[in-house]
Write the structure tokens for this entry.
Amino acid sequence: MMHADRLAAFVALGQRLAALLAPAQAEELTELSIRARNNNPWFDAPNVRAALESIAEMLREEPLRQWAGRYRPEPDPAPRLVGVVMAGNIPLVGFHDALCVLLSGHQLLAKLSSDDTLLMRWILQELTSIEPRFTEAVQLVERLNAADAFIATGSDNTARYFEYYFGKKPHIIRRNRTSLAVLTGHETPHELGLLGADIFRYYGLGCRNVSKLYAPVGYDFPLLLDALQPWHHALHHNRYQNNYDYNKSILLVNAVPHLDSGFLLLTESARLVSPISVLHYSTYTNEVDQVDQLTDVAAQTQCLVSGGGQYPGSFAFGRAQHPGLADYADGVDTMAFLADLS
């Protein structure tokens, strides 16, 4: 199967997903969403839809062709077995790695996360239905011993395990990262409302979810909390509510100053990663202080958001969960890594 065939199959998969998201396919999407939530209670219907929309957007023909055209179209000298340890914190988070491996012409050995088994199996089955020749290039496995190279996503603890077992072969090993937002105090209520998607989509479980804010000294946080009110429905999820109740009690018992919107807890902290239902913030005094603070945590940052994407290298509010094809996890070019395998 040549590069043009693989590319056409992924374009067709994008069209299949776009059709699934149309009103005419509401029943099929509802059934898939129910099955996904039975597999993982965090994967409710709005979040399954959001994940599918993001992938459908990713697989639009022209952007996909332009992105793929930057890399070697065929493996040199021959396809390799690439073992991928997939995360499962948000729906279909492992899809981009699968796309990279298969589009580059290699063979995929995928170890699925138990938290995202159903959706990943479903989308790979859709792909092989579109292009049956992919059947020979996709294996779902429990052990990756046969792999020639590895891509693994996990926590800082599991990264040490991955280094031990995979370190002697070509590899990409990803660690804990989180995402940040820069506020200036000049954002409109509409812009602040868009930030809600970066905070609450997938209930804050993704590395692209904003878990910490950087705001100027004296920032009017109640204005922000008012703008985030449309996301109050997050509290309807029993697991989110349990986290909110627990974290609120911890802050109260320990007399930690905080703001409470009724569904989100905002507290000042030097830590980057916040628990579910909690948002941390730090303040800066001027632009130099702002840059210094962000530079200090750059190695732990997955992505940065700001109003209109005005901060260099940042996404606009509301776009953190819509990465482009070249927005590689941890900033490591997966396609270049795969193109260099020999």
User: Anything to note?
Assistant: DSSP finds twelve helices and twelve strands in the chain.
